[in-house]
Amino acid sequence: MPIGVGVSPAHVKYVVDGAPTVRALQFLVDVLEHPLNAALVFGGGLAVLVTMLGYLAYRPARADVRALRQTLRDYHAFLPWMLRLAVGLPLVGAGFAGYFFSPAVAAPTRIFQVTIGFFILFGLATRVVALVGLLAYLGGLAVEPTLLLASEYVGGFLGILLLGAGRPSADHLLQRVAAAEGSVYGRFDPLHPIVERFNELVDPYEQYAPTVMRLGVGFNFALLGFWEKLANPGWALEVVEKYDLTAVVPVDPGLWVVGAGLTELAVGIFLLVGLFTRATAAVAFVVLTTTLFGLPDDPVLAHITLFGLSSALFVTGGGPLSLDERLASVVEASPLPTTAD
Asked: What is the pLDDT of residues 212-251, one digit of tens each?
């Protein structure tokens, strides 16, 4: 997993019109038969593995890590707002740009996504709107499999469903007004009791928001790394040639593709299992940033949801049902190292 080799951008079909067919297995053999390429690929993977094992064994700067985690816990109140921005903004942008979730799929109408996006941004009927958006995406996916490229929306919508609107939001404001004693608005608001009851039902499951987010982002990265690069390297090779990426990092074009594919695949797998989630989310953020600076004509809106969810995962960590959670019980049980006087 050669992190240092370079990262070819995700969603390569957004920026190239076509590519020759390249046999994936033969391509991989051709790339790795060069000693330098093989050394960089396997050496990079070994370096990552040694770093992980070394961290688990020696836990360097443990007090700093604890302070970081404690600080990030204080940021949890902002998670609903982060998710609403991460999902609402690209939906509004997609509506005005004329595509349906993914730039690879033209939108039959702009009004739907713009409306859904603004409702989520305002935090109005947030959970209901998120459910509508999720069903619309799944319905579109059944008709147009290309929408799998935007699978991170599933994690985003589910995260909003679990966390709700948070604050600031129209939902929070209206609920406070409706609940006030003697409220005129509360007398004419038939939805307030229903919303309160629904929130009570969802509250026990809010803890699983990090789980659904990392599954959504992890699947997307794994898909892009494997399918768009390792399984179909022709598209990625066209990107490397179009933007002269070998001038940025002077390595073989095939190594660019293999390195990017393995990096994104590893990021996806680590997020799916919840291993070193915060560090992996940071790597994901770097990958996306590289895309923005490396491809001037890449549609930025297509990556905002991934940016936002990666940032949210850096705040939350792996959450329930993650390997991080299991490791934490072992690591936190050990005392901090003492310093001799």
From this structure: 999 999 999 999 899 888 988 888 888 888 877 777 778 8
Cα–Cα distance, 87 to 120 (Å, whole number): 8
CA distance 262 to 248: 19
* pLDDT reported for residue 13: 55
Instruction: Give the pair of three-digit tokens for residue 20.
Output: 């020759």
Q: How far apart are CA 105 and CA 134, in angstroms?
A: 16
pTM for the predicted model, two decimal places: 0.86
d(CA 242, CA 244): 6
Short-list 308, 292, 152, CA closest to 224: 152
Classify residue 188 by its DSSP letter. T
Identify whether the C-beta of residue 19 lies closer than 8 Å to the C-beta of residue 238. Answer: yes
Among 71, 73, 88, smallest CA distance to 169 is for: 88
From CA 61, how far away is CA 54, in angstroms rounded? Answer: 12
Strand partners, 35: none
pLDDT-based confidence at residue 135 (cuts at 50, 70, 90): very high
Tokens of 280: 């992996």
Instruction: Please name which of 84, 94, 199 lies closest in space to residue 137, comparing C-alpha atoms.
Output: 94
